[in-house]
Design a protein that fits this description.
Number of helices: 33
Distance between the termini: 56 Å
Number of strands: 6
Mean pLDDT: 82
Largest sheet: 2 strands, antiparallel
Strand order of the largest sheet: 1-2
Shape: globular
Helix content: 55-70%
Oligomer: single chain
């Protein structure tokens, strides 16, 4: 077996390996085999392994390959660069017909690691990148739209422009002679200007615009930004101070910060240049001023992005002292939290203060200012991406218990505060989606059960908030969903049954979809599987079989639980008179044609069916029932669809499944997947 074949075989073994020790041995063998360097074809094989998105190889193994096995022996072509840059970006959801598809991307830390690798090994790319300079620059600048990779991409842009303007090369279009390469075009400049106008607080875009003036000394930004050109023309470049990837080599790529300075004049941010003097800034004074001044708040945000530990420590100490000193005065504490929450909002994730995060993770909500403090807590934890998921779960559990007391009191619940709280947590969880698989799954398994507990007391928004959480779960990869614990995947029965009784079609369709997703889950405990079976049986009985609240009391193992209501209550409810139509009874509540969530949608579909029918002379009026169809059949003056009640239900369901009703497809998925009698009726329209 040749050297290359042996490497490929080991990578295949890595994809199939489940044992951590075996994988570690395989990685050690790979590291030894590539110690003397590899050629481009084999390097491309390693890149394919690192960039694959089916999670065949564990995340930590990919990190090892990136850090230890990409040892190029010779100069590399632009193809390698294009292969890497093609993996940069965010996962994109798109549709082909009714199919929801995802264009997946590797995790963000792998993307940043690969960009770091290009920067560290720029010498072996230099000739090929400069020779294709305009194309390469266009791709780099296009990807500047992604904030998380902007620092690395900015350094690559500056490095590429610096090399192309200082040396002579043969290019693809002029391979006969060496010549200077001017790869910076007007559309490149305009793209960066547009991005800067969109993200004025970004610290990398101004440096690029300043460096463009170094490359093109007579550049005047009036042609690119008529409203903002005076400030752009004053920008001063110092890229050597801005991009210091070599500092903090021991830390992860995502934690490395670039040093910058913000030069101020009369309180306004006039220009941005390399930061050497940040320790001279009075951190305490700037923080106090930022509470009342947007300009100072923006300056504080920019200084935080430098990652200067001394400056951040000073701010952190000041905030911690204020939180501790105001612990006995609730009004002062609320005022201070309001100011800090505003800074977090202005920073949009750029500010992280351990003192603030320790506070919200450890303190109960104030009784007298319960929902006011909940609002501030929501604003703060939305951007607290560095918190321990276990501590976050404890906080949610504690807040749920406090909310429960309010729920059962006479005070009433402020629904907008509960909505903001849940939405902030979901925002934070989405920020964590880019983490490696194990970290994300651990966070979801810890947080989701506590979040369900909190939502149970969010009256009157339980249904809509449950839908938001379920939609978040549906966004995740199948592998992630498979690894969720029973309590994280399956909401409490109170929330599920509340959603099944919701008059909101979006809520109803989402919970139906979730019941289908949970159907094939590998439950670790039988009681969770039994609960899932009850959800299926009760929802199908209500929606299709006209057996609302049907209970099978003859067997304790039966899944027909009738929403787990007390049998005596169910018996009394069944005796209620609901309609003069003989075919409509208590058991028909929630049925396909009578369900409040579906009535309008079903009626519209019936209208569409009637419009396409050729031999009818009347329309059906009111809700469809067996009685109404029988009356139409017996009326000799009226000609309507020649279908039975059951046939019409199936036909409407098929339209719901195949028509322009993507948001409600979960209803069809539930019935077609869980009823054997409908298994051969799908796609028959």
């Amino acid at each position: 077996m040749s050297h290359n074949e042996e490497v490929v075989a080991l990578l295949e073994r890595l994809k199939k390996g489940k044992d951590k020790e075996e994988n570690q041995a395989t990685l050690s063998q790979l590291e030894e085999l590539v110690r003397d360097g590899i050629d481009e074809p084999l390097l491309a094989v390693f890149l394919d392994a690192i960039l694959e998105t089916k999670r065949a190889i564990p995340h930590n193994a990919k990190q090892f390959l990136l850090e230890n096995c990409l040892v190029a022996r010779l100069e590399l072509s632009v193809d390698v660069f294009l292969r890497i840059i093609g993996g940069i970006g965010a996962t994109r959801v798109y549709y082909e017909g009714n199919r929801k598809l995802k264009a997946k991307k590797p995790s963000k830390d792998l993307q940043l690691g690969l960009l770091r690798w290009i920067i560290d090994n720029f010498g072996i790319f230099e000739k090929s990148l400069v020779a294709s300079g305009t194309l390469v620059l266009s791709i780099l600048i296009k990807n500047l739209a992604y904030e998380f990779s902007r620092s690395a991409l900015s350094q690559l842009v500056i490095t590429l422009l610096g090399r192309s303007s200082s040396e002579q090369f043969r290019t693809f279009y002029n391979s006969e002679v060496y010549h200077n390469v001017k790869i910076l075009k007007d559309h490149h400049i305009q793209k960066v200007v547009d991005l800067y106008n969109k993200f004025p607080l970004d610290i990398y875009l101004p440096e690029l615009l300043a460096f463009f003036k170094v490359v093109v000394p007579d550049l005047d930004y009036i042609a690119y930004s008529p409203d903002n050109y005076p400030m752009l023309n004053k920008l001063i470049s110092n890229p050597d101070q801005v991009y210091r990837w070599e500092e903090s080599d021991s830390g992860p790529v995502s934690s490395k910060r670039q040093k910058r300075i913000v030069k101020t004049s009369t309180g306004d941010i006039d220009t941005i240049q390399a930061l050497d003097q940040i320790n001279r800034v009075n951190a305490y004074k700037l923080l106090r001023n930022s509470f009342g001044s947007d300009t100072d708040a923006q300056l504080l945000v920019l200084l935080f992005q430098t990652g200067n530990t001394t400056f951040i420590s000073k701010v952190n100490s000041y905030v911690r002292a204020n939180l501790q000193s105001s612990i006995r005065d609730e009004r002062d504490r609320m005022a201070f939290l309001r100011r800090v929450a505003r800074l977090y909002q202005i920073g949009s994730g750029a500010i992280h203060l351990e003192s603030v995060e320790d506070y919200i993770l450890s303190k109960n909500l104030l009784q007298d200012y319960f929902f006011d403090e909940m609002d501030y807590r929501s604003q703060l934890m939305k951007y607290s991406t560095h918190v321990d998921p276990a501590k976050l779960a404890d906080m949610i559990s504690r807040d749920a218990l406090d909310l429960k007391k309010v729920y059962y009191s006479t005070e009433g619940t402020v629904s907008s505060s509960c909505v903001a709280y849940v939405e902030s947590l979901l925002y934070l969880l989405r920020m964590w989606v880019s983490n490696d698989d194990e970290s994300l799954v651990r966070a979801l398994n810890l947080v989701l059960p506590k979040l369900y507990s909190f939502i149970q007391y969010c009256n009157p928004n339980q249904e809509w908030l449950t839908r938001k959480v379920l939609r978040f779960i549906h966004e995740q990869e199948e592998n992630t969903i498979d690894l969720l614990h029973d309590a994280a995947l399956l909401p409490p029965r109170l929330l599920v049954y509340t959603c099944l009784l919701s008059p909101d079609p979006l809520v109803f369709a989402t919970v139906c979809e979730h019941i289908v997703i949970c159907k094939d889950h590998s439950y670790s405990q039988p009681e969770w599987r039994n609960l899932q079976n009850s959800f299926i049986m009760d929802s199908v009985n209500m929606l299709w079989k006209e057996r609302f609240l049907k209970q099978d009391l003859s067997s304790t193992n039966s899944s027909t639980k009738g929403f787990y209501l007390n049998p005596e209550l169910s018996r009394k409810l069944t005796s209620l008179h609901l309609s003069d139509q003989l075919s409509v009874s208590f058991l028909s509540i929630g049925e396909f044609f009578y369900n409040p969530a579906l009535s309008y949608i079903v009626t519209k579909i019936i209208w569409d069916i009637e419009d396409k029918a050729e031999n009818i002379n009347t329309r059906h009026e009111g809700p469809v029932s067996r009685d109404s169809l029988e009356r139409l059949r017996l009326d000799s003056d009226k000609v309507w669809l020649d279908v039975s009640f059951e046939e019409l239900k199936i036909r409407v369901l098929q339209y719901l499944d195949t028509g322009n009703h993507e948001k409600f497809k979960g209803i069809a998925n539930l019935l077609f997947n869980c009823l054997k009698s409908l298994s051969d009726k799908r796609n028959a329209v």
